């Protein structure tokens, strides 16, 4: 299942210290140029999706809408998470290959 592969990669990235979560932190990383891939939960609010779509377009950061807030949070060992960013290109490339392939 590709969903499991993506969540597994996010979990590995978290253990390696390459994941930032939470709206304010993700936004800060996008603006600072440290974000490599932004992932927004499918059940995030329309305002959240629109805000991050606009920010990612402006700062030229790839973004995908994937999984649920609960699944993203559980993968990170935290509570509900509507937005996360990866800060490392290897994980970004692997996840994009799965989701776009």
Give me a quick take on this structure.
The chain has helices spanning 2-15, 23-32, 46-59, 69-76, 89-100; strands at 19-21, 37-40, 63-65, 83-86. It is α+β, with helices and mostly antiparallel strands and 101 residues long. The radius of gyration is 12 Å and the shape is globular.
Characteristic key phrases:
101 residues; 57% helix; alpha+beta; globular; 5 helices
Strand order of the largest sheet: 1-4-2-3
Proportion of helical residues: 55-70%
Strand proportion, as a percent range, falls in 5-15%
Low-pLDDT stretches are none
The biggest beta sheet reads:
4 strands, mixed
Distance between the termini: 13 Å
Q: In total, how many beta strands? A: 4
Helix/strand-derived class? alpha+beta
Structural write-up:
The protein is an alpha+beta fold. Helices cover 57% and strands 14% of the residues. It has 5 helices and 4 strands; from the N terminus they run αβαβαβαβα. The protein has helices at residues 2-15, 23-32, 46-59, 69-76, 89-100; strands at 19-21, 37-40, 63-65, 83-86. It has a 4-stranded mixed beta sheet, sandwiched between helices. α1 crosses α4 (69-76), α1 (2-15) runs antiparallel to α5 and α2 (23-32) runs parallel beside α3. The longest helix has 14 residues, at 2-15. The chain starts with a helix and ends with a helix. The mean pLDDT is 95.
């Amino acid at each position: 299942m590709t969903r499991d592969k993506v969540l597994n990669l996010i979990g590995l990235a978290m253990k390696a210290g390459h994941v930032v979560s939470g709206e304010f932190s993700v936004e800060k990383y996008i603006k600072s140029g440290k974000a490599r891939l932004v992932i927004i939960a499918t059940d995030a609010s329309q305002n959240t999706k629109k805000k991050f779509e606009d920010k990612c377009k402006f700062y030229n950061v790839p973004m995908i809408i994937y999984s649920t807030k609960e699944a993203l949070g559980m993968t990170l060992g935290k509570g509900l998470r509507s937005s996360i960013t990866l800060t490392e290109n290897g994980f970004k490339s692997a996840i994009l290959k799965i989701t776009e392939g």
